[in-house]
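Hi R.,

Here's the chain you asked about this morning:
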Amino acid sequence: MTPAPSFRSGSGRLCLDFIRTLRHRGTARPEEELPDPAALAAWVGRFGPWESVPEAAAVGHDAQARQLREAIHTLVAAAREPVEGGTALTAALTAALSTALSTAGDTVNRIAALPVPAPQLDGSGRLRWLAAAPVPAVLALIARDAVDLVTGPSIDRVHECADPDCHALFLDSSRPGTRRWCSMNTCGNRAKKQTLRGRSVSRPEG
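And here is the predicted structure, written out as tokens:
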């Protein structure tokens, strides 16, 4: 039996957890975590409102999911790094950025307009979630969360992990807003060990 994918969570926003399905983004060794419908169904089963989603429900939606993920990343990156006043851009670069943002925005808007899971009470008064198409419904939730993030004040708290092999985005909810690592248990702990190792190497022998 194939083990379930180990998806990362804890970014602070659903759309940022979704972006993390491309591991090691911007490095020489990116890893795709949503290569097929089975992986997408597993992700939706973990992060959506249902305990599990059948693979058949994700068939035909994996390419759409990857397109949404990259569109969200484009918008979040643009919202985090506005062009500073006085910085000159060539007309060609300005046009290219405008086109990229317009395309990404169109993708996010189109998917955000899809129906989302609807809450219902069953006969015993327990909460159930209904959706004719569960995978597109969760993609719509992700897209709506992205729109809310890039247009709201929380975008100023979105940071990129300082680990050069990670680059994961996360929402910094710490009071000072100076968090550097997506997770202290992984990237932060690794950096701490590397620092201690470097100190021990540079320490002169007594």
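One quick note: The CA atoms of residues 129 and 142 lie 16 Å apart.

Cheers,
M.
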